[in-house]
Amino acid sequence: MRIIRLFQIKVAVIAILLGTVSCGQKTEAVAESQSGSEHPKLILTAQGVKDIRAQLGTIPIFDKTLEAVKAEVDAEIEAGIDVPIPKDYSGGYTHDRHKRNWFVLHKAGLLYQILDDEKYAKFVKDMLMEYEEMYKTLPLHPKTRSYARGKLFWQCLNDSNWLVYVSQAYDCIYNYLSEEERNKLETNLFRPFANHISIDSPQFYQRVHNHSTWGNAAVGMIGLVMDDQELIDRALYGIKDLKLDTEEKDDDGGFLNKDGKAGFLANIEEPFSPDGYYNEGPYYQRYAMYPFLIFAEGLHNVKPELKIFDYKEGVLLKSINALLNLSDADGEFFPLNDGQKGMSYYTGALVTAVDISYHFGDQDPGLLTIAEAQDRVLLDDSGLAVALGIKNNKAEPFNKKSINLSDGPKGTQGGVAILRNEAIELVFKYASQGSSHGHYDKLSYSLYEDGEEILQDYGLARFVNIEQKGGGNYLKENKTWAKQTIAHNTVVQNETSHFNGKYEIGSQHHSVLNYFSSENEKVQVASAKESNAYPGTEMLRTMAVVKDEDFEKPFMLDIMKVTSNKKNKYDFPYYFLGQVLQTNFEYQTPKSLNVLGNKNGYEHLFVEGIAKSPSKNSKLSWLNKGKFYTLTTITNNSDELLFTRIGANDPEFNLRREAAFMLRRKDTKNTLFVSAIEAHGSYSPVTESAVNSNSSIKELKVVLDTSDYTAVEITNVNGNTKLFITSNTNASKEAEHILKINNKNYTWKGSYYYN
Amino acid sequence: MRIIRLFQIKVAVIAILLGTVSCGQKTEAVAESQSGSEHPKLILTAQGVKDIRAQLGTIPIFDKTLEAVKAEVDAEIEAGIDVPIPKDYSGGYTHDRHKRNWFVLHKAGLLYQILDDEKYAKFVKDMLMEYEEMYKTLPLHPKTRSYARGKLFWQCLNDSNWLVYVSQAYDCIYNYLSEEERNKLETNLFRPFANHISIDSPQFYQRVHNHSTWGNAAVGMIGLVMDDQELIDRALYGIKDLKLDTEEKDDDGGFLNKDGKAGFLANIEEPFSPDGYYNEGPYYQRYAMYPFLIFAEGLHNVKPELKIFDYKEGVLLKSINALLNLSDADGEFFPLNDGQKGMSYYTGALVTAVDISYHFGDQDPGLLTIAEAQDRVLLDDSGLAVALGIKNNKAEPFNKKSINLSDGPKGTQGGVAILRNEAIELVFKYASQGSSHGHYDKLSYSLYEDGEEILQDYGLARFVNIEQKGGGNYLKENKTWAKQTIAHNTVVQNETSHFNGKYEIGSQHHSVLNYFSSENEKVQVASAKESNAYPGTEMLRTMAVVKDEDFEKPFMLDIMKVTSNKKNKYDFPYYFLGQVLQTNFEYQTPKSLNVLGNKNGYEHLFVEGIAKSPSKNSKLSWLNKGKFYTLTTITNNSDELLFTRIGANDPEFNLRREAAFMLRRKDTKNTLFVSAIEAHGSYSPVTESAVNSNSSIKELKVVLDTSDYTAVEITNVNGNTKLFITSNTNASKEAEHILKINNKNYTWKGSYYYN
C-alpha cells in the first residue's frame, strides 16, 4: 500500500517538474502534440526526409553510411526473410536471427524513406506480417533462465530491444500500409507485444534498472507511433496501480522495484547524477543510452511540450559528455562494475549518443571528431546535422580532461574521479554500490597509459553473447571473483569483502569526497573517504597524478590512510599487467602453487611468490607492451609481499590468468599505505633498444601523519626531494594551512601542497 | 694440422670459384680495383652523391628520411660528444652511448656528403679523435661474461658492429681529413681495433657464425676504406695460418670453429642454403643481414671484380626474398630457434636489405611496397633507387605465397615450409639444428591467422638488451625451457628432448622432406620425416592447409605417424593462446598446481587440468583476439588429456604464463596422431556479437594407415565427408597411385589425394 502511494506522489511531482499536467489532465496534453497522421515523425521526421534528400550525394559521411546500410539491407532482401520459431539463448541461431531482423527492419524503414524505394517498405511489411503471424501463436520462450522471459527471446530485455527498433521501422512505413494492415499489426503484434513486456512482466518493467529503461522506451515508442496515450503514459510513469513484492531479486541479485519507482522519467531521475554519471557505470550506461536517447528524441519530436531534453537540468545530454569522459585514450570505456572490456564509443549506441548530443545539444565541435572516428552517422535528422558539421570543417579535437563525476540522484553519493595528465589516466572510484552490477570496490582505482592498462580493473567474469560460456551470461566467477574486493586495487581487511559482500548493505552506503583538485595542470588530486565498508574502520585515500620536471612522465602518488578501532590484517593488491623485470627484495617461488585463501575471492588466487619486505621501500618493475613501470611502496620489515595469479578454483577456465603483487600487513590498527607508480621509458622489439628502463625514485618517505595532514617526501635518483602534503580534514579550496615539519614551516591555501 | 690444411684448400677453392686469384696473386687483384683515392667509395659513392644532390627535394621518401636523420644528428651535435670509458653490459649507459655513437657517426658522415656541410665532417672527426685518444689506453672491457671480450663493449660482437658503421663514416670524411689525421686514426684506432676483433679474438672471428660475419665485415670494410689488402683478405678468408682448439664452445653452447671454415665467403657458403635460408633462422638472419649486405655492397663498389652478388648463384639477394617470406602478415619474423618475437621487417637491417635487393637485384616492384611501409630508405645510392621507384609509382604488393626453403649449404639438410592460404599461415620446421641458436624442435610448427599466433612457437627466453633481465642476455630458462622439445608443437618421446638435448648430436642430423606441394591453391601440403631425434623411432609428419567450401576459413590437417622399435610414452602439446571456451570432454582442475615433470622442460609446466579422452575425437575450442579456434584430434579412451601452463620453476619470472593442451599416449609402439585446427568466426567486444563460434567438423577418422599411405576422413557438421590420403613413401609429383579403401578404388597422381 505504502508503495503505491509513493508511486502516485512521484508521478504528480514529475508532471509538475515537467511543467506539463497532472495525471488527470492527460487528454489536454495530447491535444498539444503533433498530429498523429504525419509519418515518419518519431526519429526520422518528414522534414528531415526532405532535408536529407536535398543533401544526398554532398555529405560524405552520411552518403557512405547510407551506402553501407543499403548494401547490407539489399543482401538481406536477397537472402530472403527468416522469422524462426524462438528456441535459443543468446549466441544461438534463433536469438541471433531475431536480433539481426530488428536491425534490418529498422534500416530498411530508413532506406524506404530516404531513397523513396518501395521495395524496402514491402520488405518491412512482409517481415512484420510474418512476425504478426507467428507472434500471436507464441507461448513464453522455451528457455527458462530469465527472471522475465520474453516471447521472441529468452528474456524480455531482448524483446524490448526488438520493439525499440521495430517501432521506428513501423513509423517509416506507416503511411505505406493500409489501415487494415496497420490494424492487423497493432492488434496482433504491437499491442500484445508491448503488454507482454510491461503488464505481463512487471518484475522486468516496473523498476529503476537499465532493463526497464529498454522496456519503457519500447512501450513508449510504439505508443508514440500508434498515438496510444495509455502506452505513452505507461512508458513515462510505469504500470498504473501495481503492487510488487519488494523482496524479489533479479538474475544479478538486484532488487526488483525496491521503492516503487518506475517508468522512463524515474529511470532518468534515479540513476543519473546531476553530472550525468549513470550509477551502474559506463558499460551499462552505454547499453541504456540507446533507449534513453532514442525515446527522448521520439518524445522531443512527437511531444515537444514535455521538453524531455531539459528534464533534470538537461541530464540526458550531460550524461553523454560524462560517458565520453569515462573512456580511455582509445575510446574504450573504463570497465567499472560489471563492464566488459573493449566496449567503446565505436559501438552503435554511441553513434546515436554523439549524433543526438550534437544535434539536440549545443553543437560541440569535439563531437564531430568522435563522429569522424566512428565513421558513420545516424540516417536521420541528427545524423544529417553531424554530416553537415563535418563537411563544413567544424570538427575540433574532443579533449578529455580531469573530471569529477558525482554519483547519486542528487549528486551526493560519492562519485568517480578521473585524473588525466599527458598519456596517464587514473580512474578513482568512490561511488555508491552501482545497483546490481556494482562491485565491492570502494576507493579502488585503475591506471592507464595511452589507453593501455597499467594496473587493471578486472572487469566482469562473463563472455557476453558467447554461448559456450554459460550461454553468454554472467558466470559464477563474476560473483565469487570479479565482484569481490580482493579483485580490485584497494585495501581488503581480514580477507573479507566490503560490506561482507552483501548487496543489501552495500547499496545503503557510498564513499564521500574529501576533495578534488584539477586547477593545477601539473598536479591533479582526488581524495575520498569510506567509513562503512568495514564497520569500525575508516579509509581515506588520496590519489595524485603529478607531472614533475624530475620525471619523464607523470607519476601516480597514492596515500591510503586506514584508521580502525581494532587490529586487522590488511591486503593491498596491485593488479599489474606484464612481465616482472626486477624487485629490490629477495623472494621465493613455491614449487607447487596453492590458493591464497578459501573465500571472498581469495580462493581464486594462486600464490606465485613470497617475500619479507625490506625496511623502507619495496620496489617492483615490470614491462608491458613496450613500456616500463615501477611501483615503489613504503614498507616495514614485518610486511609480507606476495605475487599472486588469478585462476585457482576455476573449473571451466572462466578467468584470465593474470598477476598481482600484494602487500600484506598483519596485526595492525591504524596504518598508512603510500605508493608511487611511475611509467617510464620504452622498449621496442624492432630496435631492441631499452630506453629509461629504471625508476627515477630513490625513496618515498612519510615525514608527517596526523589526523589532519599526511606529508610524503619523494626523493629522486639525483637526490632532489619534493614534498606532498594532503589535508585529511579541512580540505576546501579556500582553507589556509600552516604546518611545521622537521622545524620547517609550510604555508599554503587549498587542499594540498606540492613542491 | 689437418684443420689448417683444409682451411688452405678452402681458400684456394673459393678464389678459383670467384674467378679471381690464388693467394699468391693478390697484388694484381688490387690493381684491378677502384683507385683508393676517390672517397666516398664504400657504400655511398662519389657518383651517388652527385645523383642524390641532383634529385634532392623531389624524392619524398628520401627527403623525409634525410630530414629525420638531420634532425637526429643536429640534436646530437647540439648535445655534444660523449665518449665514456666502457663499463656496462647491454642496456647500461656506456653500452648504449657507444652504440648510439656508431649510428650517429655513420649518419653524420652521410649528411656531410649529401648536404655538403662541414659541420658534420667536423663532428665525425672530433668524435673519432676522442675515440682514438681513448682506445689506445683501453684494456679489455671490464665485464667478463663474454667468450670474446671487446674493448668498447663487453663482447667483440658489439665492437664489430661499431666498426662496420664507423668505417662508413670514415669513408665519408676521408677526404676531409689531412693525411696526418688519417694516419693517426688508422694507426691508433682502426688497425688495432680491427686486430683486436680478429687476430686477438680468433674464437670470435675465425668461424662460421653470425658473430663472425659481423667481425669479417668490420675488418673488411675498414680494410676497403684504408685500401689495406691484408685486412680485406683476412675478412674474406679468415685469419691466415691459425690453429684453434675445436672443442671450445661459445656462450650459447655452439662450437668454436668446428671445421676450420672462416671468413666472409665461408660465412656465405655455409649457413645459406641455395634457396637463401639462413641456418640460424630469420631472427639471426636479420641480425647478420646488415654486415652481409653492407660489406657485399662495399665489395661490389670497391672490388667489382669479385662479383660478390653473384657468389653462390646470387644467394645473398635470394636470402632477402627468403627472409621476407619468413615473416607473418604484419611483417614479423617467425620466431624459429632463438628468435625474439616482434622483430620485423621494420628493423633497420631490413631497410638495408630491401633497398640493396631492389638496387642490386632485379628491381622487384613488390619491394617498393615494403619500403613504403618501412617509410624510410638508405641515404645512399640504393636508397635513391628505391625513392625514385616509389616516386615513379612502380610499387606493387609484395605477395607472400606458400614456399619451401631448403636448409644446408647444398640445400640437402631439410628445410622450412610455409603453407599460406588466405589469412592462414603454417610454418613447418624440418630443418637442421640451426647452429648454436637451434632448438630441439624437429617437425614442429606454428600457426597464424592474419599475423596473430593461433599455436605459438615460444621463441626465446631472453629480453634482448633489457639489463634487468640477466643483462639482456640469454636467460637460463632459454636452455631449460625454450630449447627443449616439450616447448614446441611436436611429439616428445618419454619426456626427453630430441637428441637428448645434445647439440653435438643434434647438429649432425636433419629431417628429410617427404614432399612439398603448393600447386593446388586450395590444398597446400608439406610432409617430412625425422629418423634421428629418437634413435629407433621414426616420425613422419604431414601438414596441410585446406580451403574447402564446407568451411568458412582454410583449416589445418596434421598427420603425425610414429613408428618405433619399442613402446614409449608420447606427449603431443598444442601451445594455443587465448581463453578456453569449450571441450567435448569432462576434465578436472586440481586445487593446487604441481609440475608435470622434473627435467627436459617438463619442470617448467604446471598441470592445470586432467582428463581421460573420449573414444573418437577430443575437441577443444578457444577464443583469442576476437577469433574462434577449434582443435579436433583423434583419441582413444586410454589417452590422457592435460592442460598445462608455463611458469613452474621460474624463480625470477622469466617465462610467460601461457597455456598448452597436451595429448599423452602411453605404452605405445607405433601410433598415429591426427588433428585438425579450424579458425572460425569472430567476436567483437564492441558489437558483442559472436559469429560462427562453433567447429564445423563433426568427425575426424582414420580409414587407412599403412607404411605407404595414411587416409583420413573429415566429416563436417552437415554430414559431408572429404578424404585426404597422403603418400608416406612414393610421394613424387609424378607417382601414380591406386588404392582400395572400404571397397572403393581411389586413383590419383602426385603426393596426396583430397576430395
TrEMBL record, chains A, B:
PROSITE patterns referenced in this protein's UniProt entry, alphabetically = PROKAR_LIPOPROTEIN
> Superkingdom, according to UniProt?
Bacteria
Gene Ontology molecular functions: lyase activity
Q: Which InterPro entries match?
A: Alginate_lyase_dom, Chondroitin_lyas, Hepar_II_III_C
Please name one Pfam family that this protein belongs to: Hepar_II_III_C
Query: Where exactly are the transmembrane stretches of this chain?
Result: none
What name appears for this protein in its UniProt entry? Alginate lyase family protein
Which species does the entry assign this protein to? Lutibacter holmesii
